[in-house]
Specification:
Pfam families: Lipase_GDSL_2. InterPro entries: Ester_Hydrolysis_Enzymes, SGNH_hydro, SGNH_hydro_sf. This protein is of the alpha/beta class and 221 residues long. The protein is built from ten helices and five strands. A five-stranded parallel β-sheet has the order 2-1-3-4-5.
């Protein structure tokens, strides 16, 4: 298999200091976690969950059951650019029977245009269909954030209007089954409900419990 074409982040259209940026410490952690995947025991015909911190911190077996061959391939702080660049070692080499991808919230946090995010996700889907034609592919909706000022330092430029627009376009991607968990986590004002979040962006255990039925339906198909 040829190495996937490398892509680099495009210049953001939003120069605000609230745009999320990475750090050397985070990048080092990401590379270490990626390297660890090659050392883990992997089931035959695994069900892989790949994406950002929402996936990495998801206690899959706790909430989805220990009888499934679940493999967590989430890496905190990653976006669609990272996943495209590392698709081979993060996903493809393990030949999952089912693959759930949850990515995009960090793209929004870095100010990337929605059209560019969708183009990358379409390329990602295309690569998976070429190299894993027997794999059933699911894409999870980007989850809501809480835009309260109390969470501004973590949420930064992410806005639910943009998340909803991105989800609408994600659901239309060809070759996937869409998992829509967005509404499950909302409060009466349309924000990520406080019992479900630690910081306006990441989920509490209660949040994962609330989200779990949407994924259980996928496992039972």
């Amino acid at each position: 298999m040829n190495e996937l074409n490398k892509v680099t982040p495009e210049a953001t259209n939003n120069p605000s200091k609230e745009v999320e940026t990475g750090s050397e410490q985070l990048h080092h952690y990401q590379l270490e976690r990626l390297a660890s995947f090659g050392e883990e025991r992997v089931y035959n015909n695994p069900i892989i969950f790949a994406g950002d911190s929402i996936i990495e911190f998801f206690p899959l077996k706790k909430f989805l059951g220990r009888d499934y061959p679940l493999v967590n391939r989430g890496i905190a702080g990653t976006d669609s650019i990272w996943l495209l660049n590392h698709l081979e070692e993060q996903v493809l080499k393990f030949s999952p029977i089912k693959l759930v991808i949850a990515i995009g919230v960090n793209d929004l946090g870095r100010g990337y245009p929605i059209a560019d995010i969708i183009n990358r996700l379409a390329e990602l889907v295309g690569q998976i269909k070429i190299f894993l034609p027997q794999t059933t592919l699911y894409v999870q909706s980007v989850l809501p954030v809480n835009e309260s000022p109390a969470y501004a330092d973590k949420v930064k430029v992410r806005r639910n209007t943009a998340i909803q627009e991105l989800n609408t376009r994600l659901a239309l991607l060809s070759g996937i089954e869409f998992i829509d968990g967005y509404d499950l986590l909302l409060d009466e004002t349309g924000q990520l409900a406080e019992p479900y979040t630690t910081d306006g962006l990441h989920l509490t255990q209660e949040g994962y419990a609330r989200l779990a039925p949407a994924f259980k339906a996928v496992l039972e198909e």
